[in-house]
Amino acid sequence: MSGALLAARHPDPRPGRVSFAQSLRAEWVKFRTVRGWVIAMIVAVLLTVLLGIFAAGNVNIGCQNGPNAPVLTGRACTPRYPIGPGGEAVTDSYYFVRQPMAGNGSITVRVTSLTGLHGGGNEHAAGQNPLAGMSKGVVPWAKAGLILTSSTKPGAAYAAMMVTGGHGVRMEYDYTHDTAGLPGSVTATSARWLRLTRTGDTITGYDSADGRHWNLVGTAQLSGLPATVQAGMFATSPPYTVSTPGVIGTSNQSGPSQATAVFDDVTLRGSWPAGGWAGDNAGSGAASPGTGLGYYRKSGTAVTVSGSGDIAPLVAGPGSAGPTSTFEQPLAGLFIGLIAVMIVGTMFFTVEYRRGLIRTTLAADPRRGRVLAAKAVVAGGVAFVVGLAAAILAISIGLPRQRNQGSYILPVSTLTELRVIVGTAALVALAAVLAVAIGAMLRRSAAAVTAAIVAIVLPFLLAVTVLPASAGAWLLRLTPAAGFAIEQSIPNYVQAPAVFSPAQGNYPLSPWVGFAVLCAWVAAALAGAYILLRRRDA
Amino acid sequence: MNAAPAARYPIWTGGRDALRAEWTKLCTVPGPGWLLGAVVGLTVAVSAAADAATRCPVGMTCSVDTVRLSLTGIQLGQAVVAILAVLVICNEYSTGMIRVTLAAMPRRPVLLAAKVSTTAGPVLVAGAFAVLGSLVAGLLILPGHGFTAARGFAELSLTHGPTLRAAVGSVLYLGLIAVLGTGIAAMIRDSASSIGLALAVLYVFPILTAFVGNETWHDRIERYTPMAGLNIQATTGLRALAIGPWGGLGVLAVWALTALLAGGLLLRLRDA
Prior knowledge:
The complex is a heterodimer of chains A (about 550) and B (about 270). By secondary structure, chain A is of the alpha+beta class. Chain A folds into two domains: about 20-55 and about 325-535; about 90-315, Jelly Rolls. Chain A is built from ten helices and 21 strands. In chain A, α7 crosses α8 (about 445-465) and α7 (about 415-440) packs parallel to α10 (about 510-535). The two termini of chain A are about 15 Å apart. The model of chain A is unreliable at about 120-125 and about 245-250 (pLDDT under 50). The longest helix of chain B has about 35 residues, at about 110-140. With about 270 residues, chain B is mainly alpha-helical. In chain B, about 70% of the residues lie in helices and about 0% in strands. Chain B is elongated. In chain B, α1 packs across α6, α4 crosses α5 and α6 runs antiparallel to α7. Chain B starts with 14 loop residues before the first helix and ends with a helix. Chain B has helices at about 15-25, 30-55, 65-70, 75-95, 95-105, 110-140, 160-190, 190-210, 215-225, 245-270. Chains A and B meet through α3, α4, α8 and α9 of A and α4 and α8 of B.
């Protein structure tokens, strides 16, 4: 079609010589004049938005402030979480044996034991001793050690050296940062020495297995730290979670837990004006004293500290304390939109073969690569607009709706919000280009549409339903479905005890790496399409 | 072709001829054979890969339904079945063959019945091979990965009642997907859109359940959408299912027959 038409408008003495802009124009005209495709694009946006809002919202959240208080719903139930120095929501609750430290100085301690108790379900009834019915065992992310913090208010800046239940020695600061130190757990025969040193705004953490040879674990820059900080020993232990893989998805149960650590050989350097220890619940735990899970005891040089809670970034899912949700949750309907876009993307190429139009197209512009590029750009561009519209609408309608229902949306930076929205649009665009390339390779609509949908949707489906987490994670690393990682707004923190799953918005690859995997697949498909287009007759 | 007015004959008149014609069409192009082979090959390959990726280390309790795990490949096999079912109808529309077919067999219901039988029949046979192959793969791989009968995992033997139900049910499931695909194709007539819709119906609901927070709706989706059909593969934790194995397959059958009826109705009402 376009050959004669374009030649008339742009007289060119050399037949078949059309510029890329003209090829683009021709493909755009082909796209927008097929009414079904335009309707399909609009339907893709609508379905994505409606399904996303339906899936993400629609949660009945109820709460009560006490056993006889009226049951509240909606916004009144929205939990309040402390905000950390980086702007993220955090969990900040621990038992703190502290004294003020003025100026520079250091604290060194030996940890000789870390033990714990945990519940497994709902045995903790109101008014009961919370320790009743708990079983022995330290949870993997139970933490005890040294902490140096600007204040005991929830969300305060801090740096800490700690032993953990199952992850060896760690240095953590400002909730999101975590560095591994010595491996192995603390026992009577293998004690751990920990040291925190303050020099201006720089906190340095060391560990040692014998008290003589010290290893540097990490340094933390806590800008704006006050001259006098609170420093000392802490213990905390996050809820114990049991995950039971169900037929579809995973069901989770969690109960409280408690960690108890024994410290001795406490060595203080610098200026410690108070001259003695004081113990209390710190962070948001200070607001609810008397839970019975935090205490400290001195016997001789040994100090026993026991606590419950966590010092970690807040993540969505069963590990978190309340109904939390992520920024990208309303994008759950994207799959239906992707399928629609991929159908049209495939047909954009295959229909030309069915109708014989491809011969006209190639007569007008014999350079195969350019035809492929023009189709990919047009399909990708349209899909990008579709994805952008769907993402903006779904999030701007879905998030306020979720907030009104009482969900707490984990805060993320504007840059991350932008990355999620534009990334989603790019994801839809890449899916469309992949569909075009597969269509060009297979030339048959049915096989090509199936291949395109199966490549992106099926790995995700298998990962969230039948496959165990490890196998599902490999699918989401290797297949084009890795690209969904671009939607993840809250990073995967190793130190946050959540059950990670794609349905909770957690992917095994970081956002841009996952996106790069999808890009590699699209590039490979385009290369394959180019080679086959050049080699075959139309 | 019947020269006499059609009304004098019962509705199934010409059924045998239609069947033979459809069977000839199916056998004389290479596509269906390849697709049926792909159903078996891909189903067994994905099942074996899922088996290979799953382990239950000694000392851990794993709540894995080994039968369901070793039939994972059905998730991909059903897509190939849908392609076959859709192509049997849509290829006729894209080549214009449908006009010849309808000239030879003007009774739309008989034609659609012949088409759905010649599609679903071979699919059932291929499905049987696919399911058996998947179970054999599970039998070979899973015991070595810690899923032994001694630890309480269901044996992948057809003498074990729930395993037999899962195996037979999975074959029937593929047959119903063929019926669903035929119905959708008869409604839509374009192959790309038909296959896309079929895959959307099959894949979007299970994904949606992973996101839906509202338990009532979660339950409704599991119970009333075609995904309920895959409950036939469950051999453990039946109480946790929103709908039982046979009930679930029944839900899929209702979807498939509704699609077929709607397709038949549209075939009758529209010009080809």
